[in-house]
Specification:
Mean pLDDT: 94
Structural class: alpha+beta
Oligomer: single chain
Helix content: 25-40%
Number of strands: 9
Shape: elongated
Order of helices and strands: HEEEEEEEEEHHHHHHHHH
Strand content: 15-25%
Radius of gyration: 22 Å
Low-confidence stretches: none
Distance between the termini: 58 Å
Amino acid sequence: MSQKWAYLNDIEGCEVVDIYTLHNLIELTYVKNGKSKSLTINFHVAGGSMGYFEFFKFDNIPLPPTKEKHPLSGVFKKIVHINLYAKIGEHERFEELELVCEEGSYLLFFSEDEEEAPYAKIEKGKKPSLPSVAHMEASLPKELFSVEFFKENLAFALSAHGEQKTPHGLPYSMHLLSVASEVMNALYMEPLSFDENNVAIACALLHDINEDTPTKITKESCLSGNAEVIAKGVQALTKDKSLSSKELQMRDSLDRLKQRQKCVAMVKLADRITNLGVPPKHWDDAKKRKYLKEAEFILEELGYAHAYLANKLHEKIEAYEGYL
């Protein structure tokens, strides 16, 4: 429960800029210490033979660009106070969330109409129906990323890639760690939220699994961090080999990356920075020029994702011309 309060405490007292929605997810964008942030609320429902559960999951990862403005966007102003309500049993859990704003209170709750979709609801003035949960003092992590998540996702990647080698004959871990290092360095220079940082690093470690190994990453995979966002990120980073040409495969992947969060798209920049080193000896000038042209296209399409990485890729492109 303390983890929930860390997210709620961070937004309490802040000005809400916009509200977005996507399926049963709601994103509140707010300003904290002069910096724009996002609180994404997942209205999570699970049920089966072990019971029934309706509860909130929180993170600081913005929704992807397919999100839409919520009808209440612009209505919320400053969140003065937050109340959490819950009923917790051995085989059940229900939650409600109340945002007390200057212009009134808004209750976030799960629709009781089983036929209604989406079931994520916000209503002004609605009274909570569940017992109040005591407020807890908790704050978001100060670290850049989770070392435990890094180690667990690295172990997953190493197991999947097995004895695979790079084009230079090195263990494939060299490439994965090189891409992850570029991402970590960029996040140190221009940090995102703790949750976004963890997604970016995970995608860097896992980005070639679907394309190069028999293992296929899904949200059910044993991943550390936000498994759904990571899995969708890896899928977007994976080229569709059923398309007729490498050019079409690359364009399709970039189009899908533009539909994901910036913390995912930036991994493609880091990947190409890593790959623009000394070209394999068997590459002729035509192959090198084609690879360089592809890098320019990646920068053009995804440079918005992270300014530091975009600038570094631009410098690597200029330096790569020396190999021609």
